[in-house]
């Protein structure tokens, strides 16, 4: 009697209990053996939810069991429903079949009969068969990915947890795989979307950091969807997620997004990209250990921006209590103080302590005078010229990348034609050599496409969402007078780089673009 081992495999876990999958394969194999009087089934191997294309032979436990059984002469026949149950990889599955046959194992399929390698033609047919299976798997993968991609582009939800600010709702449209199910989509959640707007407002307009925003939300009774308090990482993810302006992430490891979907939009583009610029500036400041950015805590308006004129040191803040004449109350007096005002090492200091209220008022008045004299329209026109030149350079880079991508596609087409010739013996190369070359080209194509998409996305953002700094200064004085403490500090940080304190004098150093304009250096 010939000892028969049967192998049953399904690619997806959803297929494991379906009537048309493993049970069907098993019944077909048992019926086939009934017509072979000298055959008896001695072992049955199951691969549940294992892809014969994505998984290599070395990653499949049952393939190892088959090899071990063949080496130890534990069976005489391997029976499968169809040969693609063995695998769909054209570079591995024929090798596995050859291994079994060379060790005296007959390889049979219920639907396709016995596989042999007695002649060169048998080997070629064997290779072509699995090459076709490999191609079918790739086509199936492409179809599934394309279907999911198109559904995603149309706004339909493809699984996972809804981001904060959204909820999942069922549509009336049937599911593309199961007509009894309905496609789902993301829509803004009324309550959570208000919280998202608040987070961006606090970050951009109030200049709060991640920790301060989390504390603010927790103190005001906001909670995450599962009832937990907000933490820094949650705030970071929210502020960096482009879904809030209608661009859902796709292949997030590569930084890609799906096409714009108006239904997903919660905040304005301008607000999101302002937040992105702030994040980059703060990140760069941390990497350079730059502590000069304006603080988001403290009672002095220019704490963090104030420097000593005499030694260049950053001023610290302190306070003292002043008691009223009748000693009925105490008033806190905040002051700027130079920490290096003692000794001759750091030079002579004509003054080392400055009253906060007095000097904050002096600086604000001087700043208002400076801004009132600026010809802002001329400044912004000159500034835009430099941005336009930079955009042209990026556009040329994009054009070059597209040309390189086109050249690679031509190479890919030539290799595909050469593979066809190799299969009929008219090529100087083997199918294996051409297959390796084709995979290398496909990898280069994928990387080149990623570079193109990244650069195109960056260009689109710069064209469509270019910052309009004139809006920051329009009615600046009115906005400043009406702002609260956090907003005042945020507005000052956009204009002032440093303020130097001397004896009864101040020297304001504006941010680079404004300073260059005043000195006539811009472009």
Automatic annotation (TrEMBL):
GO terms, molecular function: DNA binding; DNA strand exchange activity
InterPro entries per the UniProt record, alphabetical: DNA_bind_recomb_sf (IPR038109), DNA_bind_recombinase_dom (IPR011109), Resolv_N (IPR006119), Resolvase-like_N_sf (IPR036162), SSR_resolvase (IPR050639), Zn_ribbon_recom_dom (IPR025827)
Coiled-coil regions listed: 391-465
CDD domains given in the database record: Ser_Recombinase
Pfam families reported in the protein's UniProt record: Recombinase, Resolvase, Zn_ribbon_recom
Keywords noted in UniProt: Coiled coil, DNA recombination, DNA-binding
Occurrences of domain Recombinase (ranges): 163-285
Gene3D superfamilies reported in the protein's UniProt record: Putative Large Serine Recombinase, Chain B, Domain 2, Resolvase, N-terminal catalytic domain
Keyword Ion transport: no
UniProt cross-references to PANTHER family, sorted A to Z: DNA-INVERTASE FROM LAMBDOID PROPHAGE, SERINE RECOMBINASE PINE-RELATED
Name by which UniProt lists this protein: Recombinase family protein
